[in-house]
Amino acid sequence: QVYAVFSEELQCWCRALVESIRHQADGCQLRCFLVDYAKYCSIASENIRVLVGAFAKIPYRAKKCCLHCTKPLTLHIDYCENTAKIGPAKRWDTAAIQHFRKLLE
């Protein structure tokens, strides 16, 4: 279900999908995916509203996707043998993400 959330970073109300809920002493924090900005953010539980009517039916401007058959790689450095090899990684590193975003722009 899509909700309306107030983003402190963007200073506006946005449509969002709730990914997870984290309970804290002062309330709940919601991890949300902003469907019109393709961004993840944390939202306080008091900044969420239910969308009603036609607003809930507007198509998303952003979609979650992944690269087909593309696995993250990283540079493995062996200081003992003084070698460096490219090999599989568990997740994409920051430099690769920034490079990919520049290619998209």
UniProtKB/TrEMBL annotation:
GO terms for biological process, alphabetical: germ-line stem cell division
Gene3D superfamilies on file: 2.30.30.140, 2.40.50.90
GO MF: ATP binding; hydrolase activity; RNA helicase activity
Ranges annotated as spanning the membrane: none
Top enzyme class: hydrolase
SUPFAM superfamilies in UniProt: Tudor/PWWP/MBT
InterPro entries: SNase_OB-fold_sf, Tudor
Highest taxon, organism lineage: Eukaryota
Catalytic activity: ATP + H2O = ADP + phosphate + H(+)
Residue intervals of the Tudor domain: 3-68
Keywords linked to the UniProt accession: ATP-binding, Helicase, Hydrolase, Nucleotide-binding, Repeat
Enzyme Commission code(s) on record: 3.6.4.13
Pfam name, any one: TUDOR
Name of this protein: RNA helicase
Name of the gene this protein is made from: Tdrd12
